[in-house]
């Protein structure tokens, strides 16, 4: 027989059973003996006791799949939706990549534009161009725009060589290039081991290409030694020397034999080219043929004809176009022509009407719709009577006559011999006592009625030196006149005068860096008239400034947006709809077409035809509103190769994308913590500034290349590079000046300061403005002392005798309206 004994610790009962039969139970007080709870010992760790037990916790592959299926069923709906969405995104990206590849290498795509650029002057680009065209086809196009069709590579290509030393031509070719092939010569390696693969012009153009945006790039290495070992070493040394100048994706190819060029063309056929983002936002045509039709010689206008392939996007006949070097114009029609270089020529084509001008077949002609065509609106036409008041009533005229009679009856103390006309300009004593009663908000903005026999308008015109038109002596008196502009009237100046002006400009630039914004109060002009447009600010960051206050006359000619970001989004969406739709008034990319640009001045068209012999002429389609004038702001940096000072309002040529125009910018800081920005008199090297100009509206992102013309015979040189930042006429740019004075007598926190002003009336006029010292003290003007402009000041701490007392004044600055559009 088997006896079993079981104890229940939870209830304290003992069960006794024999052969499975319960005999009885005894309840004990076990909980009391164990202190209220049962003892639980820590189990022994036997997980990794042996090698075989290490895999016990692992589930089998079959069980894992079963578990995954069970978990999948828990969130089946949400996960299925997420998987479907990710699959849809992948399919869209795959389809977009396939469409982009077909657009680049398909039969309907335009020929690939390959630009050969020599990194040094000793590179022979002509032989390389001939070798590439010979490999592609035995027949090529004209000499200016040679296009070859290759059935072996299934590719069409146009090969251009950039003229070394011509910066404008190189820039225009880089803007439209699908592939830039930089050519280096291995003969640049010297005996001492040094190398000069890139000369000064090559380095300058390379930095400009980076600022514009590099497309796909390759590097050709020419003139390698014939010996195999030396050839390998020379190629390796050239690659290691130039690899830091180009993107990581750039490949290096030897290009001495046709076999090496054949390898490059075979890889180019399969390569997906990349382009700058700004270039794909607008349709453009790189003209292969340029002509002009003069309908009426008396009007001085003609029709400009540009023939070439349409790139990037659909081009509408109703939109405006910008011709490089000519300006913005409307289209009168577009001819769709038969492709002169088809990749797959058709057999037995139908005969079509041959065009009389270029002997090519016209497939279809697109005419603009007058109701849909974008108007060529550049400036707003202001109404000169919009701000005029109504004609005064009879009661107002009678009241004015009564006031005039009372003024005549009032007795005034006048100098002997004063006529009635002279007495009208002399102020009363009560008016003179009110000089210091103006509050800080109106400081420097209100002119008094006149003084010393000069009317307020005459005084304003006589002492209005704040037009900032080329000041050279900025640290002296801040007097700026048009005659001080350097190299503006260079034809009438001798060589010594030009050198002297350049020296004065450099001295002014150095003085502006050492003592920024400091000016001296003139002795012969009252400070309240000389600085009448200036005002004081309690805090540059937090003080308010109305952006609509006292705007110049040029602001009536420009356009502004209520919400620029929203307008940009709407315009880009409209351009995208134009690409997706199949309208009868648009030309798709890859089409060979001729643009008829109407009402172009004959002189401008003649210059464009001459420029077409050295560089491609680009016609770029403009987005909505891009012909209207506004205030554009650019993030700009001085180019490293330009060492001359660049003063505000100097004339520069701005190359913005495909467009170019002449402007006179002002420079300012980019203050992210305030709505006000401080004007800079010079573009300082080594840091970015903001350049503001009057120019046609453009939607960012767009690159900027600013060039400066040294002379009529000399070519333009690169002065600065940057990008378009925003379009905002309400951006507040403040010109700051600092008036300085010196303590004459100091008594702890009080001091008598002189040489800041020279008349007691000026002290009363600027009394509400706060003063500060270079050692960190702040104070205010208490009262004038004497008759020579000295004043008593109170500071927030003990003033030192060697300290300098300063006063900051501000006025809003505006760009200069361009003389050439």
Automatic annotation (TrEMBL):
Record's keyword terms, sorted: Nucleus, Ribosome biogenesis
Keyword Nucleus found: yes
Biased composition (Basic residues): 42-59
Domain Bms1-type G: residue ranges: 110-274
Start and end residues of each stretch annotated as Disordered: 41-107
Transmembrane parts of this sequence: none
UniProt biased composition (Basic and acidic residues): 60-74
Record keyword Heme present: no
Subcellular location: Nucleus, Nucleolus
InterPro entries recorded: AARP2CN, Bms1/Tsr1, BMS1_TSR1_C, G_Bms1/Tsr1_dom
GO process annotations (BP): endonucleolytic cleavage of tricistronic rRNA transcript (SSU-rRNA, 5.8S rRNA, LSU-rRNA); maturation of SSU-rRNA from tricistronic rRNA transcript (SSU-rRNA, 5.8S rRNA, LSU-rRNA)
Molecular function per GO: GTP binding; GTPase activity; U3 snoRNA binding
Any one cellular-component term (Gene Ontology): nucleolus
PANTHER family in the record: PRE-RRNA-PROCESSING PROTEIN TSR1 HOMOLOG, RIBOSOME BIOGENESIS PROTEIN
Sequence similarity: Belongs to the TRAFAC class translation factor GTPase superfamily. Bms1-like GTPase family. TSR1 subfamily.
Name this polypeptide is given: Bms1-type G domain-containing protein
Organism: Opuntia streptacantha (Prickly pear cactus)
């Amino acid at each position: 027989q088997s006896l079993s004994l079981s104890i229940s610790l939870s209830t304290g009962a003992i069960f006794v059973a024999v052969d499975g039969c319960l005999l009885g139970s005894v309840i004990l007080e076990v909980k009391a003996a164990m202190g209220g709870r049962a003892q639980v010992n820590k189990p022994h760790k036997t997980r990794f006791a042996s090698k075989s037990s290490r895999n016990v916790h692992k589930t089998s592959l079959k069980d894992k799949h079963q578990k995954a299926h069970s978990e999948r069923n828990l969130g089946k709906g949400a996960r299925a939706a997420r998987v479907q969405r990710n699959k849809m995104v992948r399919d869209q990206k795959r389809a977009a990549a396939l469409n982009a590849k077909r657009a680049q290498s398909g039969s309907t795509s335009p020929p690939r534009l390959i630009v050969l650029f020599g990194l040094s002057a000793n590179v022979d680009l002509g032989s390389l161009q001939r070798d590439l065209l010979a490999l592609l086809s035995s027949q090529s196009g004209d000499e200016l725009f040679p296009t070859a069709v290759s059935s072996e590579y299934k590719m069409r290509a146009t090969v251009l060589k950039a003229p070394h030393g011509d910066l404008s031509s190189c820039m225009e070719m880089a803007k439209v290039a699908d592939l830039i092939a930089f050519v280096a010569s291995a003969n640049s390696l010297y005996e001492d081991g040094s190398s000069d693969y890139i000369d000064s012009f090559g380095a300058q153009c390379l930095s400009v290409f980076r600022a514009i945006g590099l497309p796909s790039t390759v590097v050709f290495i020419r003139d390698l030694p014939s010996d195999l070992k030396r050839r390998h070493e020379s190629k390796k040394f050239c690659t290691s020397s130039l690899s830091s100048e180009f993107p990581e994706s750039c490949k290096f190819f030897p290009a001495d034999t046709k076999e090496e060029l054949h390898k490059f063309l075979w890889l180019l056929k399969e390569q997906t080219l990349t382009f700058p983002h700004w270039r794909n936002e607008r349709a453009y045509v790189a003209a292969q043929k340029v002509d002009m039709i003069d309908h009426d010689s008396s009007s001085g206008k003609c029709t400009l004809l540009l023939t070439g392939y349409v790139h990037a996007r659909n081009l509408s006949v109703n939109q405006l176009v910008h011709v490089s070097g000519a300006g913005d114009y409307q289209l009168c029609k577009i001819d769709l022509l038969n492709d002169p270089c088809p990749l797959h020529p058709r057999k037995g084509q139908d005969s079509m009407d041959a065009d009389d001008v270029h002997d090519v077949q016209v497939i279809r002609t697109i005419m603009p719709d007058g109701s849909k065509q974008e108007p060529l609106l550049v400036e707003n036409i202001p109404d000169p009577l919009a701000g005029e008041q109504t004609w005064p009533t009879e009661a107002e005229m009678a009241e004015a006559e009564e006031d005039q009679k009372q003024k005549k009856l009032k007795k005034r103390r006048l100098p002997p011999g004063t006529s009635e006309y002279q007495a009208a300009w002399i102020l009363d004593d009560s008016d003179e006592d009110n000089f210091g009663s103006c509050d800080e908000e109106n400081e420097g903005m209100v002119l008094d009625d006149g003084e010393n026999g000069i009317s307020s308008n005459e005084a304003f015109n006589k002492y209005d030196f704040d037009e900032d038109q080329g000041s050279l002596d900025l640290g002296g008196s801040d007097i700026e006149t048009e005659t001080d502009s350097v190299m503006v009237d260079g034809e009438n100046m001798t060589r010594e005068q030009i050198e002297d002006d350049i020296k004065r400009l450099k001295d002014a630039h150095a003085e502006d860096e050492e003592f920024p914004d400091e000016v001296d109060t003139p002795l012969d002009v009252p400070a309240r008239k000389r600085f009448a447009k200036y005002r004081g600010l309690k805090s540059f960051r937090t003080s308010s400034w109305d952006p609509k206050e006292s705007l110049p006359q040029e602001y009536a000619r420009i356009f502004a947006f209520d919400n620029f970001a929203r307008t940009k989004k709407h315009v880009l969406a409209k351009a995208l709809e134009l690409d997706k739709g199949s309208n009868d008034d648009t030309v798709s990319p890859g089409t060979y077409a001729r643009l008829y640009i109407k009402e172009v001045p004959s002189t401008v068209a003649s210059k464009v035809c001459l420029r077409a012999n050295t560089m491609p002429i680009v016609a770029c389609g403009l987005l909505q509103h891009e012909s209207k004038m506004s205030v554009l702001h650019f993030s700009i940096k001085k180019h490293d190769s330009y060492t001359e000072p660049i003063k505000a309002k100097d004339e520069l040529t701005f190359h913005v994308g495909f467009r170019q125009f002449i402007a006179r910018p002002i420079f300012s800081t980019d203050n992210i913590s305030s709505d006000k920005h401080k004007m800079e008199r010079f573009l300082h090297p080594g840091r970015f500034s903001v350049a503001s100009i009057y120019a046609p509206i453009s939607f960012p992102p767009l690159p900027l290349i600013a060039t400066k013309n040294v002379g009529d015979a000399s070519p333009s040189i690169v002065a600065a590079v940057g990008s378009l930042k925003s379009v905002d006429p309400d951006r507040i740019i403040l010109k700051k000046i600092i008036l300085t004075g010196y303590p004459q007598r100091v008594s702890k926190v009080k001091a008598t300061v002189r040489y800041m002003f020279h008349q007691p009336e000026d002290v009363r006029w600027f009394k509400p403005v706060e003063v500060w010292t270079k050692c960190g003290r702040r104070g205010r003007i208490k009262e004038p002392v004497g008759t020579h402009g000295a004043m008593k000041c109170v500071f927030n701490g003990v003033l030192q005798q060697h300290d300098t007392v300063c006063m900051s004044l501000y006025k809003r600055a505006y760009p200069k309206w361009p003389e050439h559009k």
